[in-house]
Amino acid sequence: MSGKKKADLKVIILGDYAVGKTSLICRYIDGKFQTQEPTVGAAFFLKQWGPYNVAVWDTAGDERYSGLSHFYCRSAGAAILAFDLNNPKTFESLWARFGSILEAANEDCLKIVVGTKVDLLEPEHREITIEEGRKLSRDLNEHIDIRKLPHDPYFETSSLANENVQEVFEYIFQYCLPLSADQKKRHRNQQKSVVDLLENSEEGDKGKKKCC
Amino acid sequence: MSIKAFELVSAIERVKLMSDKAKTQIECMDVCGKNMYIGTSDCFVVHYSIEEKTQPNGRVTFVSEKQGHKYLVVKKPIAQLRAASALNRIMVLCDNTLTLLNMFDLEPIVTGAKIKSVTCFCINDNPVRTNPFSVEICVALKRKLIQLYTVTEDRLMHLRDISLPDQALAVGVDGKFVCAALSSQYCVVDTDNSQFTDLFPIDSDQIKPIIKRISKEEFLLSGPSALGIFATSAGVSQRPPMQWSDGLTSVSYVHPYILAMNDEFITVHSILDQQQKQAIPFQGGVVLGDFDGRIFVASSREIYSLVPIPFEKQIQALLADKRVNEALELAKNANKTGMTRDKFVKMFKRIQQQAAFIEFCQQHFEEAGQLFRDSGIDVREIISLYPHVLPKSINFTRSVPPLHEIADINQLSRSDEKVKAAYKEFLRTFLEDIRGTNLAHGYKREVDVALLKLYAESAPERLCELISVDTGCDLDDCVEWLERHGRLHALGLLYQRHAENDKALAVWTRLADSDSPDPTFPGLEFVVEFLSSLTDHELLWKYVDWVLEKDEELGVRIFTERPASEAQSERLRPETVVDYLHRFPRAVITYLEFLVFQRRLEKEKYHTHLAVLYLEAVLRLMEGNSVKKEELDIARSKLRHMLQMSSLYRVQLILGKAKEKDMHAECAILYGKLEDHDKALRILVHKLKDFGAAENYCQVNSHGKEPGYRKRLFHILLSVYLDPSYERRDTLVAPAMALLNSSVAEFDTVKVLQLLPDSWSVGLLAQFLTRAVRSSMHNSRTTRIQRMMARGENLQVKQTFIELQRDAIVMNDERACAVCNRAFNDPSFVRYPNGVVTHVHCAKNKYICPVSGKLFSAGRTR
């Protein structure tokens, strides 16, 4: 809500009307799934990642907001291109519509292709293969050194079943704002609001040893 | 929806324009301090003074007076008009020409400075240059060009031209950035380097482009689909867009609200959550503007002000609608309105409290608890909602003005027991949580009493802990409450806590006697424990009877388990207790055992008494027919142990009785006590035939006595074995031999030899004799060694003595005492081994040198 704090990373989510962009973000931010009204214009969420603030921008998929999406993409460090795994049209429009919109984003913008609603997918009626998705994700990221990534920036998610949602965001954050293993642990704990006494005591021990 | 954030108040009801022609209409206006300027459609600039007055009832009214007017001759409408108070000028845009007028007399300035073919202009509120007597403006021209000017009293100084791809329909400026609306898109231009950033496309035919500067480097723009879009000068957005209505004509901003006007409504949105908060019907609005934080709105002929409703009122309105989160959000932002920190904190806490009570009413207990805690509420406010839970003696009046309209939880729960229980559960957990924290500071009594009452109702198992650990509960109404709920044990504890031991005991006796006991009451044992550590002995006696009658063995613990540190008291003297316990045979035994074995009191009376009691017990058992053998054995061994261990009882008394009943083992011990060993051993050997016991007897009775005594005892035993007068003495040869060969027995060999019958063969005695000879030899040798060592020691001492005496000491007049430093007057003196010489009376200690403090070993000087 408060945009005054300067965010360290801007992540934008794009994709066709009703592919489940807002649901994906809600699942990650609020940890729950609920039916969403169509997004008007854009919406904004702030997320803590270790010491960093990440601004997550949700856009409206409706074609009449295309001009705005372009504007909201500006200076995005990462973009999630979402499509409905059950609807090949939405996959095609990633190429057709959103490729150009992303020109406004940062030059080194990481683009992640995310298939949504995997829970509705019947394997025998699958129209978009995993390989196609992966290929698109590789093609979109030609500008960056893809070898630095742990795997292709392609995910298949379900916001309803909370499948792969956390992974998408952590994949992005870890690439754009890498945390050390230690920081990451602390971040997890923060989320769980658990204090890891063991970890602290270990550190304390090390210090003591040095003294002696 | 909605907060009532603003109220429409008429400012100038009917603008008295120069000409009363019907077509005269307001086109634009500006307000600067008390001056209001209006531009009309028929080319007049009118000057009013306007003043805001707040009535005692809080209503705001405006008083206005016309100051003057000016006709600008060109017969075109005044398109834009801005006052620049620093320059005493107003800038007027009319007929595409920007000119300057004097602020007071509305006359054109002498230099006649003007800019032509202007479509619109705006003032830079965040100027790059800091000259206070100049104003920076940005001007959009008819051509594809915008220009920057510095305006002074009489001049318009051109700074820079920036060409655009298209004609600018609206401009906004902040610092070095200009935001411009072109016919198909918005853009931001950096005026330093003319760098051009696209924002987003619009269709200016459908939507009137509006650029409103919100804050430093941030603009609010009207976007497609009636969206209000925020954009920074860097060309990005930091806030989500907001949904407006169609056909907007103007936008204003007063933190934290954005106001937007179309033909029919003025809508109010919060910049905090982008939601619409209020809609004010307003037909035919022409101008809406914020002027130094005040908002004025004009229709074609009338001017109104939108007076912000004070935050508190808005918040209260939200609270009244139970919109807690919005109220708190608004309250948090209220500190931006120039309140002092203290005042804000106070206000905010109060709102939190009100909010908490609202959540409380709706049974949102988690939220309510959090808010109660955060707001640092006076816990009594909460407790007072629960009838009878506050201590009666406390005179608490709820805060005024009231934080809520709740009478009590009965009203809230509408007598639904389930709901009521939930409310009580909430109070319980809440109080438990805050107990001992700052929040409960100063209200310990209220909190603890409340908890006590709640526990008494629903969780009696927790009462004990509450009462025993540092409780703030007083006796006042807790007593009555606990009684009513039948929590008698807790009541007892509470009395105990307040040192009302008498009452406590009264409660407990009642409890122990009653048929329907309190499940938390641990039973009689608890009372006994309590009595055993009770320091008030008078009170103790009052209850002893009752306890002993209930359970003798338990009851006697009152006397036997007293704290070790307790001071002796007249009321608890052993005699008194023993006398008292007479009626309770088992108790008295236990008590005497305690005195004899544990306290180790060496009084004949107790020992005898205990011995007699033991004896009586044994006798009773012996008389009874169907008594088990084990029971008797135990009783007798107890008696024997007593007889053996103690030597303080009156032996004769016991002996008499023991003899009567043929209690041989006991008699033996008793004879032993009388040192009549012969008789004792005879009993052991002849009557009981317990040779081991006889041997043991010798050892036990000689324990701690001189070595000869033991020999004598064993000798007696031997003579008993060998007594020729005993008719069955053949049977005793074997034990006699065993005794002689025993490693524990000691004998005077000579006497033994005299005693042994001549008929016994040497072979039979070989073992004994060898041993006797060897030990005799051993003794003789050890003695010799001892003698020689003593002699050696003696010689050594002699040598030392001679050495010490060998040196001569000269005593003359100069010789002074080492201690007092006086001369020696009489012939005797003291010399220490280290040569120090003193008077006899100065030598206080002959082992310590008075000068050096050296210690001479006592052994050597002896």
Q: Could you walk me through the main structural features you see in this protein, from its secondary elements to its overall organization?
A:
Chain A: It holds the Pfam family Ras. Chain A: InterPro entries: P-loop_NTPase, Small_GTP-bd, Small_GTPase. Chain A: Belongs to the small GTPase superfamily. Rab family. Chain A: This is Ras-related protein Rab-20. Chain A: It comes from Aplysia californica (California sea hare). With 212 residues, chain A is of the alpha/beta class. Chain A folds into two domains: 9-178, P-loop containing nucleotide triphosphate hydrolases (Rossmann fold); 180-212, no CATH class. Chain A has seven helices and six strands. A six-stranded mixed β-sheet of chain A has the order 2-3-1-4-5-6, sandwiched between helices. The longest helix of chain A has 15 residues, at 197-211. With 862 residues, chain B is an alpha+beta fold. Among the domains of chain B are: 6-309, 7 Propeller (Methylamine Dehydrogenase, Chain H); 807-861, Herpes Virus-1, CATH 3.30.40. Chain B is 40% helix and 21% strand. Chain B contains 29 helices and 30 strands. Chain B has a four-stranded antiparallel β-sheet with strand order 1-28-27-26, with no helix packed on it. Chain B has a four-stranded antiparallel β-sheet with strand order 2-3-4-5, with no helix packed on it. In chain B, strands 6-7-8-9 form a four-stranded antiparallel β-sheet, with no helix packed on it. Chain B is elongated, with a radius of gyration of 57 Å. The mean pLDDT of chain B is 82. The A-B interface holds A 1-4, 10, 40-44, 55, 64-65, 67-68, 70-72, 74-75 and B 198-202, 223-225, 227, 229-231, 234-243, 272-273.
